[in-house]
Design goal:
heterodimer; A: 288 residues; mainly alpha; 14 helices; 67% helix; 0% strand; B: 107 residues; two-stranded antiparallel ribbon; 79% helix
């Protein structure tokens, strides 16, 4: 069953010439209706085509960032930050969970250095994500890589990885960059709006999902689907299950979020060992 | 805006940016050994699983296990839907709908 079934038929593909904004909206609808997107034959590398494909693909992240950004801003507001101070942090740091922790530390009167050190440890997990993305960003200059690095988050990593691996899509660093920056903009804007209107918004704490509030489940559902996309064989199932169970165990044993790195490094290493042990002579797709 | 705050945000920005930047610069410009390619190939599945499961199955500070609650239970049909349809949009919509429905039952 395709989503087109849920959201009405296809069609409307030929009304793309009104304005650019309409085109972008159109691409988002197209994304939602028909996923995966069929290859666009004409003007595939036209600047606007690339931009709007990248931006449209960011919709699940934008949807999920809105409530989290608002919730963050409410906490930041309560910790005494002005909307522009909140926006500045979202622009410079751009890392959800680290910003939540930083704001709660500011609220309790912590010094600058402990906050920076905590931010560092909380965001170390991006080492793994950037390493994994590097495989798909070969032959780019330092400038472009540096630009790209700014937008690496849990969400953009997961989404771009699925796109890069999908052989049916023409996903490249420019589309990925457009996706990153769209998500980035959604985050910054939602935190600034929350900073202004925070007192009127019923906010969660950003960590626990509010019972029965659908939008809070947008990112978990996205992650679940992108995890499914990563499963390309029995060994991947094993690695995923092992990593999840280890992560739960480590998260109960240790404070902070080191459990993410600990569990995934252990599980991926075991995956390599198991592949070496049982998969001799099997050729991997990347080698061909 | 206080200088202290500006310094804090700058410092946080730098320590966040570096782990995002270093691997891209050092790994994307050289031929990686086969074992490392394989390892990196497992990382997305491992990281995503390690991000999701604790987020759905634990709450509180200090964290404790909460198994029979909507977020985790809803993830099972959501995962099956994703598996069957391979549709990101459909999964997000179904997941949100199920979470809403589950909220009615559990409250």
């Amino acid at each position: 069953m395709r989503v087109g079934f849920l959201l009405g038929g296809s069609g409307g593909r030929d009304r793309t010439d009104i304005t650019n904004i309409f085109q972008l909206f159109h691409t988002v609808i197209h994304e939602i209706r028909k996923d995966p997107l069929p290859k666009i034959k004409r003007n595939m590398n036209h600047r606007w085509t690339v931009l709007k494909e990248g931006m449209a693909a960011a919709w699940p992240i934008c949807l999920g960032y809105a409530p989290i950004g608002l919730a963050f801003a409410v906490l930041a507001h309560n910790a005494g930050l002005t909307p522009w101070e909140i926006g500045l942090m979202s622009l410079f740091v751009y890392a959800g969970s680290a910003q939540f922790i930083a704001v709660s530390m500011i609220g309790s009167g912590s010094a600058v250095i402990p906050i920076i050190l905590t931010t560092f440890t909380v965001n170390l997990r991006h080492l793994l994500m950037s390493s994994s993305l590097a495989v798909y960003l070969q032959r780019l200059g330092v400038g472009r890589l540096s630009l790209y690095a700014y937008g690496v988050t849990d969400e953009s990593f997961a989404l771009n990885m699925a796109r890069f691996q999908d052989k049916d899509r023409d996903w490249d660093w420019r589309r990925a960059l457009a996706l990153n920056q769209t998500a980035n903009l959604a985050w910054i804007v939602s935190t600034i709006i929350g900073g202004y209107g925070g007192q009127f918004i019923p906010a969660g704490d950003g960590d626990t999902l509010r019972q029965g509030v659908p939008i809070d489940y947008a990112l978990p559902a996205m992650f679940i689907c992108l995890l499914v996309f990563q499963i390309r064989g029995g060994l991947y199932v094993l690695v995923a299950i092992l990593s999840g169970l280890l992560a739960v165990a480590f998260s109960l044993l240790f404070p902070g979020n080191a459990y993410i790195v600990m569990a995934s490094v252990t599980a991926a290493t075991l995956g390599v060992i198991l592949r070496k042990g049982c998969g001799k002579g099997r050729k991997r797709p990347e080698e061909s | 805006m206080k200088t202290d705050y500006l310094l804090l945000v700058l410092g946080m920005g730098i320590v966040t940016y570096l782990p995002r930047w270093v691997p891209l610069i050092f790994l994307s410009r050289r031929r990686l050994p086969e074992w490392l390619r394989q390892w990196l190939d497992f990382i997305p599945a491992a990281v995503l699983s390690a991000l999701i499961l604790p987020a759905l199955a634990t709450t509180g500070e200090p964290r404790h296990l909460t198994v029979f609650q909507p977020a985790l239970l809803v993830s099972i049909p959501t995962l099956i839907f994703a598996w069957k349809t391979r549709s990101l949009a459909g999964t997000v919509i179904i997941g949100m709908a199920l979470f809403w429905v589950a909220g009615r039952f559990f409250s």
